[in-house]
Amino acid sequence: MASSSSGLTERKLIHVPSTDNHARFNLSPVPSVGDDDEDEDDAFDHQTRRDYPDIDQDDSGEEVDLGGNPLDTTTTVTMFDHDHEVTNASDRKNDNGQMTNVAYVVHKHYENFQTIDWLKDLMRNRIRHRNLRAQRRQSWRKRLAFWFDAWSGWICVLLVGISAGLVAGFVDVGAKWMSHWRTGVCTPAFWLNREQCCWGSRDVTFDDVHNELCSSWQTWSAIFGMDELLVSAWFFRYFMFIFWSVIYATFIVILVVGSAPYASGSGIPEIKTILSGFIMYGYLGKWTFLIKSIGMIFATSAGLIVGKEGPFVHISCCCGNLFSKLFPKYGNNEARKREILSAAAATGVSVAFGAPIGGILFSLEEISYYFPYKTLWRTFLCCMIGALVVRIINPYGNGHEIQFPVEYNVPWAIFEVIPFIGLGALGGLWGTLFIKTNIRWLKYKKTSRIGQYPRAEVIILTLITAIICYPNNYLRLTMPELIRRLVGQCHVEDHMDLCDYQRDKPIGTATAKLYAAFAGPGLHRAIWQLFWALIVQVILIIFTIGIKVPSGLIVPSISIGAIAGRLIGIITEQIAFQNQHLAILRRECGVSNEHCVTPGLYAVVGACAFLGGVSRMTVSLVVIMSEVTGGLSYIVPLMISALTAKWVGDAFGEGIYEENVKLSGYPYLENRESFRFTLKAGEAIRANRSGEPIPLACIYQDGMTIAQIDLLVRRHPHSIYPVVISEDFPCIVGQVQRRDLLAVLKSRKTQLTFTHTKPLLNRKVSVVSMSNLLNKSGQPSTLGMRRASIALQASKTLQLHKLVDRAPILVTDQTPMEAVIDMFRKLGCRQIFVTKNGHLQGILTRKDIIRLMHEANVSDKFER
């Protein structure tokens, strides 16, 4: 049998039951023992509250009625024992009553590192909505509550969009200012970055990489009164660049490791797993939100080869989680909460790139596991609001929300399809190389001493990065600034190295067309510096992704792809210019010697190809790159490169996010992966390789002692236990969750400690999980029902029938595994019971399915 296990901790319990008069939610038709029991409940409630007022309370669950409405906001385990020292009027009426009744418990929150039950959560939501709809005509307050519930989804995503946009604007402005602080200070107003400082200056000049230079912006050597032309001044600026980089990295790694370990990394693999139904408490908490927001500023400002766009997805989901708690519709239902988280994940991409449509497609294609149609419209609103807020803040300083604007509309030539395909293939190969080496490095860190010193690792890596990057003018730039220069087009007034051509024809006006020409010395110098920058970024990103700071992979991939694309674009441009007589070029490039190759376009296509090679995105990637650059005329080249990169990358393995999920061991069931072998459910639950059967950990309906139940939950720490009729007749009749059993056992032990000086756990006390409603043939038994009623009234019993879920999902041992896997994917099951001729054979969990699919893929590779 395959069964899931997880480390569960016992929750505190309320031993004081609710005193409401509503009917309890009963999952099995156990015969009632009389109406007097309700009076006994109330009397015992009053007595218990008076005698034991200091019993711990916890909000881990709620008691519900038949309609599914919450009757109490706390966990309530109703226990009463008439022959204990608690006496009341009902006890005098029936002195022999010795039944302990346990009310049905519905937990608001799952245990940590568990998978949610999609079917049960969605069912609870439908019942809650139906009750609100039925009660809306009773009063104006009920009607207001109904309409508030109906509009709560729109209000929630509106708040998420506003908050995500504000955080994105704050992070963008802060990161740019702190990055420029490493090279100098704006003396009139220190809170301005270099670009803002020189806006109002009349003596603005530009250096070889198009950085602004003005009298208001002072370098560190100038501030300390050193001559800018001296070698010592250059080394002093070098030292200050390294100093501030190390200070930034040291601050954030201490903050992350010490206060919020979940704030490290990009968070996209974990968000994928959470949206699939996995519980990770604290990962979307307020401390993670706060520290990761600050950490993105410091990590990118330190000059590390990381981006802040990936962590924006995590930050937006934190906003979604925090705001969903304000609305019971989402805060108390994990399945519905994931609709808000899906919209928030899309908003993260929207505010990071200014690409709202691309964010929606990114969430739909790459992130979301459950994406109903109504969530699409709410996601649309959320992304629109986020992009609008970023546009109002204007963090990029270009007057619109596009981060890397493309200001040219030159048509591309047919022969350029060949270099576009080459860029796509190169991006797929680089993505495979990065994924393999980075995953291997992360595995090595887990088993070596390097992983034991995350602070020292970040500080040393930052020191090495700063030492290597400062001498290169292009590496000294922030990655968004570098990408903006690479994808841009040369203008007449540009004098940077990338635009240094030997043009013979005079240029009349600033709007005149630039004609093709031979590369000048500045362009040759830029090519070698870009080639060195490409090598440095490719090497450093392997060791940087995975350190204990907020680190995204999207912008570094775009930067590497833009460098490679610009280099290939310059080479293609020179080849086309010098070989215009060829037949393939004569038609496109032989007219008026005008530009037929745009190197900036190759940078855009290369960025798309390299990001696609790492993430394996296609549709959403093309839309994101089109929105980021504003180049809607180049959708076809982007599609060619993205599709080629995915084909080449898929030939060697999966994307980086899927590999990180596997490395972390998260129970994520991939929707796109197929099961290649014809295996039956009965074969999947067979014992280990030795062939010895593993005994099933079951609860028997015929009766078990408290000691046996206690031993069962300790020896077999599974999340759920099947309930069968008997050991000889293992016909499954329901399932009981481990947390409910722990709640009952802890409550029982506490009550016995209060009422007896000696524990009674060794006494032969029967634990009845359900009444004996079935005989050995599986048919209803009137005698069994009568005996059960007598047993419950006349014996010392612990009645657990209200904790039993009598609607488990069953399949036979002959069910094909393809159908079982589809049930896990489409129904969101936590586990499925496998039966043979009505008898329980075993349990299949999500982890078992993932393990079987992995083993099938491994064996398939060996057979090939």
What is the compact description of this entry?
The chain has 864 residues and is of the alpha/beta class. A four-stranded mixed sheet has the order 2-15-14-11. β12 (720-724) and β13 (732-737) form a beta hairpin.
Describe the structure.
- The chain is an alpha/beta fold and 864 residues long.
- Among the domains are: 156-191 and 245-393, Orthogonal Bundle (Clc chloride channel), CATH 1.10.3080.10; 414-661, Orthogonal Bundle (Clc chloride channel), CATH 1.10.3080.10; 681-768 and 786-863, CBS-domain (Roll).
- The strands form seven sheets. A four-stranded mixed sheet has the order 2-15-14-11.
- The relative contact order is 0.11.
- Mean pLDDT is 77; it is low at 1-101, 103-108, 508-512, 754-781 and 783-796.
Write the layout of secondary structure elements.
Layout: H1 36-51, E1 61-62, H2 89-93, E2 99-101, E3 106-107, H3 118-135, H4 140-181, E4 184-186, H5 194-197, E5 205-206, E6 212-213, E7 217-219, H6 220-223, H7 231-259, H8 268-275, H9 286-301, H10 309-324, H11 328-331, H12 334-353, H13 356-367, H14 373-393, H15 417-447, H16 454-469, H17 473-476, H18 479-487, E8 501-502, E9 518-519, H19 521-544, H20 554-578, H21 583-589, H22 599-615, H23 619-629, H24 635-650, H25 656-664, H26 681-684, E10 699-700, E11 704-705, H27 706-715, E12 720-724, E13 732-737, H28 738-755, E14 766-768, H29 782-794, E15 797-799, E16 810-812, H30 817-827, E17 831-836, E18 839-845, H31 846-863
Parallel strand pairs: 2-15, 10-12, 14-15, 16-17
Antiparallel strand pairs: 1-3, 4-7, 5-6, 8-9, 11-14, 12-13, 17-18
Helix pairs in contact: 3-4, 4-9, 4-10, 4-12, 4-14, 7-9, 7-16, 8-25, 9-10, 10-12, 12-13, 12-14, 13-14, 13-23, 15-19, 15-22, 15-24, 15-25, 16-19, 18-20, 19-20, 20-22, 22-23, 22-24, 23-24, 27-28
